[in-house]
What we know:
By secondary structure, this protein is an alpha+beta fold. It contains 11 helices and 16 strands. The strands form 5 sheets. Strands 5-8-9-13-12-11-10 form a 7-stranded mixed beta sheet, with helices on both faces. A 3-stranded antiparallel beta sheet has the order 14-16-15, covered by helices on one side. A hairpin with a 2-residue loop joins β10 (about 260-270) and β11. The protein is globular, with a radius of gyration of 23 Å.
Amino acid sequence: xxxxxxxxxxxxxxxxxxxxxxxxxxxxxxxxxxxxxxxxxxxxxxxxxxxxxxxxxxxxxxxxxxxxxxxxxxxxxxxxxxxxxxxxxxxxxxxxxxxxxxxxxxxxxxxxxxxxxxxxxxxxxxxxxxxxxxxxxxxxxxxxxxxxxxxxxxxxxxxxxxxxxxxxxxxxxxxxxxxxxxxxxxxxxxxxxxxxxxxxxxxxxxxxxxxxxxxxxxxxxxxxxxxxxxxxxxxxxxxxxxxxxxxxxxxxxxxxxxxxxxxxxxxxxxxxxxxxxxxxxxxxxxxxxxxxxxxxxxxxxxxxxxxxxxxxxxxxxxxxxxxxxxxxxxxxxxxxxxxxxxxxxxxxxxxxxxxxxxxxxxxxxxxxxxxxxxxxxxxxxxxxxxxxxxxxxxxxxxxxxxxxxxxxxxxxxxxxxxxxxxxxxxxx
Length: 428
């Protein structure tokens, strides 16, 4: 689950009041001495007939608007900032590691952390700034939550890369909730949490430990290969890749312990090249934990850092927490049950925790069959309908059978839904 990254590689994923505020940041631009505020204001509210009210702003609806009231109710929850929540514990472990491991020239942490950025972004921020093609499958309405054609709930924390680099930052972590329409099972939820990491290097910084540094360069006029971009020298790419893998290996060792086995799988993302997925061997099983790579220089250049080269990674907090704490169902992260939350009130963020199951109640299985028009159907439309009606009672939905009617071309479907409540037996 390097969720944001994998989503780009593989084309596919109770009405409650919201907290009163989502925190913003103040940053400085590379191209201006004035400061700019990254927007965040007030809580979400339910949509009216022709506008969506969210974080203190109104967004006119159009033919792309598909965000639901249930999803709006999650905006502003910020589970990653709730003290002693398991996602907060993971975020704090990563933050603590980066603060202590990487120190700047002035003795302060090299990496800055932004965990209050608004989840409402423009389509340009979410896709265009990351060089994602207009026809890329990840842009589909069926896979995202659009407020309208111009604004959406971010599908990944990478949506903030360009702005943060443009503001003058060379090393940062961005953490937040992200939103995707996806399948229903114990590892997928329409809202989850990611951490983005970016590090840029000048020529002097990258080659500082090498003798005769003046003879080495970051850039050249070459050809793109499987191992490098056309504008990068092989020496620069090798050092950036080495640093990236070293940083991430140290991070996973910090979280999961010494002796951790790691392997790297070559892959492809629109915003990095070369690109990799990191897998760890945990309790005898190889598990994917994040995606990463050398940043596309076109992205870096457009943000105003033409003289630098860098790496980026993206990881899912839920993925790490489910592995580390042995949490079997992603819905549990949204639980307000004290039996769940109290398990993570510990004196130290690195204390070992093994989740104790809350429920031994049996699940309820329901089958449903229906006809669908072939030209407008998306499987995520059905998942969204199921989530809207059944909420977090629904643990899993699977497709059992399908066929096309030979005369009218309609598509009947037979799906099975598994319901399970954590507190008591349910009857439907």
